[in-house]
Amino acid sequence: MTGGRAFWPLLAVHAILVQAVSYGLRPSLSYAVLDLGYGPAWVAVVAAMFAVPPLVLAVMTGRLVDRLGERPGLVIGGVALTASAVVASLGSRSLAMLVIATALLGVGIVFSMVGEQSAVAGRARPGGLDAAFGGYTFITSLGQGVGPLLLLVPPAPGSQAPPLVPIAAVCGAASVVILAVSFGFGSRHRASQAPDARHRWPARRLLAIPGMYRAMLVGALILASIDVTLAYLPVLAHERGIAPGWVTAMLAARAAAQMLSRVNLAGLVRLLGRRRLTVAACGVSGLALLGLTPPFPAAVLIVLTSVYGFAAGVCQPITMGWVAALAPPGTRGTVLSLRIAGNRLGQSLIPVLSGAAATVGGASGVLALTGATLGIAAWSATAIADNKD
Is 192 a member of any domain? Predict the structure, then answer.
């Protein structure tokens, strides 16, 4: 791993650009699908393609990080993100190419995030996982706020969608920087046990650790809800005749609220305790999504997405720390990759259900269904160890 002083600046550049590419390119791909004349059900298919390839590769990514360190995974992620931007730019008028670009984007994100999260966990002080991941997710929120600004690029004549080609070009340039920065990370963060230690911890045994699957369920449902809002807020705006600029405002407000909750995470944990805070955050985020379904004005939608962002922003760093704390020595990369695999499973299944909901209730039906699933997340969060002090 890179040295102490250089680590956080390099991580900040890498994580901000990764999230900016994800949050700029993903909604642009959704708009491109709609602009080609395909409906919300096809948006659900494309959203699922973001999740399926990483679901297959996630565990392999974690094993790679445990054996070789973060750099190889980060480099692979940078290559996949660059390829995604190139395919999106060249295939902006082809549904098949948009699907391929989305899948490559998903691969790039999973390799990048496993590497980042493993590096952060490896540098955390004993008992400092919540603080470390709070800082990390605060950084990612900056990128999530920057990415949607790309939707402000004026649409082409005769189109209401942000133009994919220039947005993909910007994301491609950012991905080249991501790839270059990835080489700045070392590869010394590896399992401390003997080389065969990982064979004593197959995935099914890791998942059997008490509390592990409950932690992963919370993370999966929260991240799936974030993914659904990213994909379906453009659809909701399209259905209600709301201009893309308002979607940018919603996503930016959500990101700002996430940053606010994460920068104050340590204080919130001390005030409420991890269990009460996580359960409440899951419940509030679900209610906020349900609040998006009535035909409120755009300004009200911004308030609701802000509330959702604040609550969901609490859950992600806590679940990262939760699973990292449960990980046996030498398996942290694998456990974090299993968490991402669980997240991608949620991102695979919920878009399928979303497609069915979209045919009945449009984007409002999708958001209502997603909000309801966060009630399950609130129940699952009751298993978290409380450390209120």
Answer: no
Query: What CATH number has the domain bearing residue 329?
Result: 1.20.1250.20
C-alpha 255: how far from chain center:
12
How many CB atoms are closer than 10 A to CB 200? 12
Rounded alpha-carbon distances, angstroms, from residue 326 to 14, 66, 211, 373: 27, 16, 8, 24
- HSE (CB half, 13 Å, CA atoms) of 218? 33
Q: 227: pLDDT confidence band, cut at 50, 70 and 90? A: confident
Percent of residues, the chain, with pLDDT higher than 70: 90
Instruction: Go through 150-169 and write b for each residue having 16 or more CB atoms within 10 A of its CB, e for each that does not.
Output: bbebeeeeeeebbbbeebbe
Structure tokens at 348: 């695979």
Cα(84)–Cα(107) distance, integer angstroms: 9
**Mean pLDDT value across the chain:** 83
* 388 inside domain: no
Q: What is the pLDDT of residues 122-175, one digit of tens each?
A: 776 766 777 788 888 889 888 887 888 898 888 877 777 788 999 999 999 999
Vertex 356 angle, CA 23 and 278, to 5°: 55
- Which amino acid is present at 112? S
Looking at residues 350-368, what average pLDDT do you find? 73
| Residues written for the chain | 389
How many other C-beta atoms are found inside a 10 Å radius of the C-beta of residue 129? 20
Cβ-in-10-Å burial (0-12, 13-18, 19+) of 389 comes to exposed
- Domain-embedded: residue 88: yes
Largest CA distance in the chain: 62
- For residue 214, being part of any structural domain is answered with yes
* Enclosing domain of residue 242: 4-187+203-383
What residues have CB less than 8 Å from 204, skipping those under 6 apart?
Answer: none
Task: Write the pLDDT tens digit of every residue in 60-71.
Answer: 888 888 787 888
Give the number of domains in the chain: 1
